[in-house]
Amino acid sequence: MRVKLFYFAKVREALGVDREEIDLASSIQTVADLVGFLKSRGSAWHTAFNELSSIRMAVNQQIVEDDHAIRANDEVAFFPPITGG
Amino acid sequence: MAVHVQEGLFDLQIIAQKLKKLHNSGASVTFEGYVRDFDLSQDKLDMLELEHYPGMTEKALLDIELLASQRWNLDDIYIVHRYGKLKVGEPIVGIIVFSKHRKEAFEACHFIIDFLKTDAPFWKKEITNQKSYWVEAKKLDDEEKNKWN
C-alpha cells in the first residue's frame, strides 16, 4: 500500500528528507511496524529513530500512538515534541 | 471562531476592536506572546524560526477552540499564530476570547494557550549570533495542560 511520509523540525534535519511517498510491504500494519522498517534503512535512520525516543507521530494530521493501524493513502508524520506558542 | 496561521505580523488590538463590534459580550481576555531577547545559554538571540505542519496546525487550533467552547459559554474565540522568521520583540501568538462574564473569558484564554503549547504542531529554532538550535519541549508545558483534566 502506498503512503505519504512527512518529517518535521529536528527529525527532518537528522534524516535529511522532508517528505516522500513509498509502497509498504504487507507485513507493515502499524506505525510501530513502519518505524521498524525506517530504522532498517541505514545508520542515520536507525540513530534518529532510536535517539529521538520522544518522537511524536501523526496519521492524517491526528496525533496517534505507535500501535495505530496504517491504511492505504495515509499521511504519516514524524516530529519532535511541540514547542510553539 | 477563527484560526489564522500566517507569516506576517498582526495587530491584536485592531483585531479585538473589530471583533468586539460583532458581539454583545460583557468581557474579553486577550493573550499575546512575543519573541524574547535571550535564549537558554544566555547568548544574544537574534531571531526565532518557527516551523509548522501546514494543514494539521489549523486543524489542531480549531480542535482547541472547539474544546474550549464546549467547556465554557463563550461568544467567540480568535487565535492567530505566526511561522517563519520572527525578530526579537515581535508577536508570535495572539488569542482573544469573548464571553458574557469575565470568569469564562479568563479561564478559556488560559486553557487555550496551555493546550496550544502542547497540541499545535509548531517547532521553534533559536538563532543567535553564534549558532542555531531547536528549542527543547518543556515538561512544565505538559503539566500545565494536564491541570485542566
TrEMBL record, chain A:
<dbReference type="InterPro" id="IPR003749">
    <property type="entry name" value="ThiS/MoaD-like"/>
</dbReference>
<dbReference type="InterPro" id="IPR012675">
    <property type="entry name" value="Beta-grasp_dom_sf"/>
</dbReference>
<dbReference type="InterPro" id="IPR044672">
    <property type="entry name" value="MOCS2A"/>
</dbReference>
<comment type="similarity">
    <text>Belongs to the MoaD family.</text>
</comment>
<protein>
    <recommendedName>
        <fullName>Molybdopterin synthase sulfur carrier subunit</fullName>
    </recommendedName>
</protein>
<keyword id="KW-0547">Nucleotide-binding</keyword>
<dbReference type="Pfam" id="PF02597">
    <property type="entry name" value="ThiS"/>
</dbReference>
<dbReference type="InterPro" id="IPR016155">
    <property type="entry name" value="Mopterin_synth/thiamin_S_b"/>
</dbReference>
TrEMBL record, chain B:
<comment type="subunit">
    <text>Heterotetramer of 2 MoaD subunits and 2 MoaE subunits. Also stable as homodimer. The enzyme changes between these two forms during catalysis.</text>
</comment>
<comment type="similarity">
    <text>Belongs to the MoaE family.</text>
</comment>
<dbReference type="InterPro" id="IPR003448">
    <property type="entry name" value="Mopterin_biosynth_MoaE"/>
</dbReference>
<keyword id="KW-0501">Molybdenum cofactor biosynthesis</keyword>
<dbReference type="InterPro" id="IPR036563">
    <property type="entry name" value="MoaE_sf"/>
</dbReference>
<protein>
    <recommendedName>
        <fullName>Molybdopterin synthase catalytic subunit</fullName>
        <ecNumber>2.8.1.12</ecNumber>
    </recommendedName>
</protein>
<comment type="pathway">
    <text>Cofactor biosynthesis; molybdopterin biosynthesis.</text>
</comment>
<dbReference type="Pfam" id="PF02391">
    <property type="entry name" value="MoaE"/>
</dbReference>
